[in-house]
Amino acid sequence: MPMPQTEASGPEPHRPQEPVELHTPAQGARRASSEDAPCARPEGSRPGRGTLRRAFSRVSQRALGQAPRGDAGLLRLSGRFLFRSLRRTSDNGPAGDQTGATSEPGPAGGRKGSSKAKEGAGRQSSTGTGPEEAEGTSVADLISKRQLLAAFEQLQHLETGLLAEKASCTFQQDPTDFARRAMDVCLHYDGLTEEIGAIVRETLGPDGVDAAALAEVARVVLAEEEAHPEPPADGDFLRTPRGWRQHWEDAVQRSAEERVRQAGAGEAPGAAPGAADAAPDVARLLAELGGLVRRDLQKVQREVHPAYAAAGFPAWQTYLSAFHGAVARRFQELRRDARSYKQLYVLLDWATNVYGSPDFLGPQDQTVPSEPLPPLLAPDVRARLEDDCISFLKTEIASCFNRILQLEQDRWAAAEAPDVLQGLYRTTLSSDVCMLVAEHAKAAGAISTKLEATTLGICARALGLFLPRFKQALLEPGAASEPDLCASINACEDLRTHLLAKFPESFGELEKPLVAATCAFQKQLLQGLQGDVQETLQELHRYVVREYLAQALRPRQRFRGEDRLSGSKKMRLEAQAISNTFQELGSEAKWLGQAIPCVADIMGETRKDDIGRHLETLIRSYPDIRRDHVLAILALRRLGHCRNQHLLRHTQALMRDAAKAGGSGATGGRVLFEEIELSTSVGMVITCI
Fold first, then answer.
1. Same domain for 244 and 283?
2. Domains: count for the chain
3. Measuring CA to CA, which residue among 276, 438, 301 is closest to residue 366?
4. Distance CA 344, CA 441 (A)
């Protein structure tokens, strides 16, 4: 049935004693279009109408601007049930009185109501409104003053009277009048509903807790449940339960959601929530969130729950569930935005060790039901979060080992000598790896033993892949020095000592790779040392031959006859002994083998013409020989002045040719005679010759 566009604003002529009727802003808006008509009456002709319009304008604006969709749709639902009731009344005749009210018309219908309704309307409300004051105050004013119980009692009184008139077929000829008055009642019920939500929203605000208003909410919810225990059998809308308890719970949930959303609201708008370096921001946001939730729930324990409980209305569990759900939803958003293992670590640690701690809410009030916080993460959600953390962790740990290898290579390239600690070469390799494993194991262990074991397994596998790469890089020719090899050997031993001893189950399989790497480094080191020892042996070999020749070229006396021949033979035998000894030790200086035998051949040669041939062999083999050395060798024989001069000129020509060919450079830097210094006495002997 369509609603009329205009309605009479004053009492009907045949109802001179009709009390004030309740009108809504919607009715006022409809009348505004017809106030200029001749039949329209001034606003003051109906007592209380202006007060109702002013009071309800605030409620209507709040309903349109702040109420959720469910509240906004309540009016449409009310109208639908209302007109269904009207059709049933007009089609089927008078409806039975389901409320037990007398057939005597009540105030809403312009007649006296039942004594029970009058008594209910006159009862003193929780806010101190006396019977006379409440009876002379409109429902809208009572709602605006938050005298909710008094407003509900008046509405219940009007509802009872309206149903009584409906049952007596008063509106059979004018059903629109019933629709208008029933709509007034419905809108006032909606106003009461909105005011309950407003009180809940203000409860946790900065203005403190209004205990009287909370107690009023509890009483009016319980009173409505008592007045409308269940839906009527005939589907009458006016007697349908209003569901204020559910509305109150929904308002608590919305309040908790708004409070939780305040945490982190001051973050910089340009900050990327998923940035890899945003872990400190996530930690700060969670700390702020935890502090806010803790303060609000403690406030509920100390002030809110007692105010409701005084009226027989439990509130703690509802607030606890509401905040838990809001925190869980906020946490899921942070989880979806996480882009690094650090953020996931922070989230898991906060959910496990902060929010999941029994001390999260602090000391519990003994008067409040002790209800522990339920788990923030469902098992499947937690498993997915840990899987995400593990995926990020694999990449991060592999990257850390790459950086460790790069640092070592940079140090080798810079030729930085490793530190020496307690007489041993040391590198940061072992400390870096042990610190990496320890930090991740500690962080994961604080969350769960399963995640700790998984993290250790990831570290062990990453170290197993790192060792061959490190070994290959270190053994590259010229990559590292002997001290670096020594430091790496010590690092491998440190890893075996610490990691394998502390985490044998996870790192036990790395025993063989670490031993293999140690052996490879030791072998490379020994090869390098062996090369140095060959160089040392060659230098020692050269030193022995040089000193032997120096002594031979500075004889205490000149050899004659058989002494010269026996001396020559002895020199060849000693030269062979020297050569054999150093070759057995590993010397490869075979070029030293002809020096002593050549001198011995010159000294023991019986055919003087062959002495020149021996000198040629000596000069070609040792181009660093000088004229003084040749004269000292010739002085070992009695050849005569002419032959000596002839051999000397011949050797000088050979030495010039050798000098043109590059001197000592032609033999690869081999030096023997150049370091043999001859005394002045020898020179004097040669001069005498």
1. no
2. 4
3. 301
4. 15
